[in-house]
Specification:
It is a single chain. The protein has one domain. It is α+β, with helices and mostly antiparallel strands. A 4-stranded antiparallel beta sheet has the order 2-1-3-4. A hairpin with a 4-residue loop joins strand 1 (16-21) and strand 2. The chain has 2 helices and 4 strands, in the order E-E-H-H-E-E. Bound molecules: zinc ion (ZN). Zinc ion binds next to loops.
Length: 88
């Protein structure tokens, strides 16, 4: 069991994605995008409470840190992430 890197700044987590589940969907956000929005020095643990679904506006009921679910292929359905660290 890997300890969630909640103290890590978002800039250190480039290449990883957040898997978020809310009542309307399961979605994936690259941490690079989160770093652009929240600031690269923002810690992961500080950014999580600010997450909201852009479709329904709810906070996600489940959040996990995963490696690249798209495996670099655009237009291809998401694959199964190899690494998954639950954050909620
Ligand atoms: Zn939603």
């Amino acid at each position: 069991m890997i300890k969630p890197p909640l103290d890590a700044p978002l800039s250190l987590l480039h290449g990883y994605w957040l898997e978020t589940r809310c009542r309307c969907k399961l979605s994936y956000t690259p941490l690079a995008t989160l770093a652009e929005r929240a600031g690269a020095s923002t810690r992961l643990g500080e950014a999580l409470p600010r997450l909201k679904c852009q479709t329904c506006g709810e906070r996600p009921s489940e959040i996990a840190l995963v490696d690249d679910p798209a495996a670099g292929a655009s237009g291809v359905p998401f694959g199964k992430p190899q690494m998954r660290i639950p954050l909620t």
